[in-house]
Each structure stands twice: as C-alpha cells, then as structure tokens.
Amino acid sequence: MNYFISIIFNMLGGIIAGFIVYFILDCKEKKQWQKSKTKLAGLFDDVLTRALTTIRLLAGIEPPLGIKNNEDFLDYIKKEFGKDYQQLIVKVKNSLNPERYNTLLMNIKGLNEEIKYLLLVFLSFKKSDNWYIENILELYNRINSNFWIFYTFPEISDLKYQNDNKIKSFKNTAINDIVDFCKFVLTVKQSENIKNLK
Q1: How far is residue 156's CA from residue 162's CA, in Å, rounded to a whole number?
Q2: Among residues 139, 145, 44, 59, which one has the least CA distance to residue 95?
Q3: Other beta carbons within 10 Å of 100
Q4: Which residue stretches of 68-157 are H helix?
Q5: Are 167 and 153 in contact (CB under 8 A)?
C-alpha cells in the first residue's frame, strides 16, 4: 500500500515540477520576446522601406530631399505614386529599361534573402506575435508572385519589343502586380504593429 502511495506522490511531484518548469520557461520566453520586439519590428520596417525604394528606383523617381523620418518618407512615396497609383503606373511604363530591370532583379534577390533571415529570427521566438510572421511570409510570397513576369519575360524592358502586343500585355500585367505589391507594403508599413514600435 505504502509502495503505491509513494508511486502516486512521485508521479504528482513530477507533474507539478513539470508545470513549474513550463511556467518559468514560458514567462522567460515572453519577457525575451517583449525585449526584442521593438528591434525586430524595426528590422521588418527597414525591409518594407527597402521594398518601396526598389519600386522607386524602378519607376525612376528621384531620391527625396529633406526627409527626416519615416513619416516624411511615406508622405513622399504616396505623393510620387499618386492617387490610385496612376503616377506610378505611368512612371514605370515610361522608365522601364534593361538597366532598371537588372537593378530590380538584383534588389529583389537581396530582399528575398533579408526576408528569409528575418523570418528565421522571428520564428526563433516561440512567443512572437503571429501578425509579424504572417506578414513576413506574405511579403515573401508577394515578391515571388508579383514579380514573376519580370523573372520570366525580360523582353518587357527591351525597346525592341515595345510594339509586340504579347509583350505589351505582359508589361501591363507586371505593372498592375507592382501596384498590388506597393499597396500591401504601404498597408503593413502604416499598421499599428509597426508604427507603435518605432
């Protein structure tokens, strides 16, 4: 009888000890995430800024002057992209050339690597907010889906094909995909999860 009581007490002791260890580790992970959250959100915001700069360079938009902070940069980008992104569409159509095309591909490759690294860092925190992981993944997916025409049809940047109806159609679709990409990036960049931590 005493033997069974001893086994039961040992089991209960093990379960209680397990809960205590879990609680301590859980609290430690939450504290670690809260301490790192601001810096990581800042890194994510920097990636979003580089994504917008990649589009600015593709569209041939001059670098902003007198920009002092993130809000100034956003105001400048929104003004240059225009209402309903019409100015952006015209600028990309008029300025797309092989040099800008190659710069775009190089920048996208760099962004892809940054996003993969950022995702690994966020995933290393068990208590990280799902919002960040979902939006980092979405950004990664959009870079691959919104720019597939640029990867597949380099002819869209070549003046030799400017009268080719098929290539014109691909170019128009590619530019519309860029607009979708910019809408997403600007929405995330202006979200409370980014703004409140800067």
Answers
A1: 8
A2: 59
A3: 16
A4: 70-81, 86-95, 98-123, 130-146, 148-152
A5: yes
Amino acid at residue number 193 = N
How many beta carbons lie within 10 A of that of residue 169, not counting itself? 12
Domain definitions of the chain by residue range: 34-195
The model's pLDDT over 4-51, given as tens digits with 9 standing for 90+, comes to 555 554 454 445 444 444 444 454 555 665 667 788 888 899 999 999
Neighbours of 56 (CB within 10 A): 21
Contact status, residue 77 vs residue 52, Cβ threshold 8 Å: yes
- Residue 50's closest CA among 96, 98, 114, 140? 114
pTM across the whole model: 0.80
For residues 179 and 193, give the distance between their C-alpha atoms in angstroms, rounded to a whole number: 23
pLDDT at 23: 45
Cβ proximity of 95 and 61 under 8 Å? no
Helical (H) or strand (E) element with 60: none
Looking at beta carbons, which pairs linking 49-54 to residues 24 or more positions away fall under 8 Å? 49/73, 49/189, 50/107, 50/110, 50/111, 50/114, 51/111, 51/139, 51/143, 51/181, 51/185, 52/77, 52/182, 52/185, 52/186, 52/189, 53/107, 54/104, 54/107, 54/108, 54/111
Question: Which has the closest alpha carbon to 171: 150, 145, 142?
Answer: 150
